[in-house]
Amino acid sequence: MSLPTKTRSPRLVDPSTIVGWGVDADPRNDPTYPIRDQSKDHGLTSAWDRPQVQHAQVEILQSIEHIRQPAVVGTSVPPSGLSGMMRRLAFRWSESNWMHWLMLMGADRVNVVEGLVGDLANGRIPNIPGEMGGGAELAFNKRGLIKKTALVSSVAGLAFVAWRRRQKN
Amino acid sequence: MIAMDYRGPYRVRLSEKPMPRILHPEDAIVRVTRSCICGSDLHLYHGMVPDTRVGTTFGHEFCGIVEQVGPEVQNLKVGDHVLVPFNIACGKCHFCQQGLFGNCHESNAQATAVGGIFGYSHTAGGYDGGQAEYVRVPYADVGPTVIPDWMDPDDAVLLTDVVPTGYQAAEMAGIQKGDTVVIFGAGPVGIMAARCAWLFGAGRVIVFDMYDYRLEFVRNYAPAEVYNFEEIDDVVVFMKKTTDGLGADVAIDAVGGDARGNFLHWLFGTKLKLEAGSAIPLHWAINSVKKGGIVSIVGVYGPTGNVVPIGNVVNKGITIRANQASVKRLLPRLIEHVRVGHINPKALITHKVPLQDVADAYHIFAGKLDGCIKPVLVPHGG
User: Is residue A33 a part of any domain in this protein?
Assistant: First the structure.
């Protein structure tokens, strides 16, 4: 098989040795994707043959860019608490507005604190080293673990010394 | 049941959660037998995707046994072993009707820019994912596909995302016979894109990454020319020199927002979140493709914005094509490729981990530890 040589550098892999080389080559794919099949274009949204609409039993926040609720919705983790209030506020803006996303990112961070408080309120002390994959770090990255431990210990030590000095003064 | 439970950036654990229920007549409940951790799950894990709520279960690459079906499900029956595309697609809307199953308009209330995706934040619909013993699967007649008898479930689970996404990266690139294709990223999707570039007739496939073990893997698997960008002064100059000064015909971004390779992009995108992830692979792709070339993007970025040289896109006359993979559209062709031996998906799996060890699995994958390329979680009874 002879291929056009498009580059001056020698190819390190000979395409003729590749199993399946060129089986999906399509000269019409230039440019093609997505190939719009206009015969299946419904036009107006109201003309779609919609699936049955799910009636959610929990609060679903909806993008203001939608003209109606999509037929199915995810129901995991409804908004709640302070982070939920922030998320509700975020959905006053469209997906095109930075405030929408910044508010959601802020809510995500607040939600992490809420998660910790929720654990403690339920009598559960979260195993944070375990949740962060400490076991794998110990097994496969001992050097990294030692570095991180030394760094955290140093920062904590310095903070403690600074605190003691301030107490004495 | 037990399920992966997101607690905040870099923190996940296993928790008891209620069994999923049928909430819509076209739902099914699936008992998970395999569930991968995807490179794009790491964007969630690192806290980069807005509206990722504490308590969410991730996992959009899974297969399993149908346990229960809603009253309107016609094509599946209890006991079927199915692979479940990561897209939640109604099959009826304007977009699904045109084969754009990754862009369904009837599956995501929280955003219009992306269709519903299992376990991928509320920005992608707020569905729990498959890193669990059981999962609710909406539109069960559309996406889930019965795994052929001859197919290994380890191959099947990779047909839910990795293989279609890599294949579509090559397809969208409009590769013509003899084209030089450069791929940024030697993760599972980049590896698969390199393999599939040959199926479309590439004449030369070049892959960049910073991890030598991944470059070694793709060198043998695809096969491909491989380069560690940390050992190269300027990736774009290198690409120009190796293509007679013109640039590649096609460039594929198979990394997305977690990319390394440029301090400022890393700082502002990955750490400070002022960009929607680090866009350095996209930057390299635009600048190293030839004039009139095609940039294909399958790397995942957040919904806000990124700093990229859009002026060069105009000046060079570049075509950019990008999308979430339309898994259902591609499945028949890809199943055939696996059957005849053109693609060997399960070769990518380096780690099979019990679901109970999900926190360690995430850490291994995120940290590129122990030669990890693709981890698969296996629930009890899987």
Answer: no
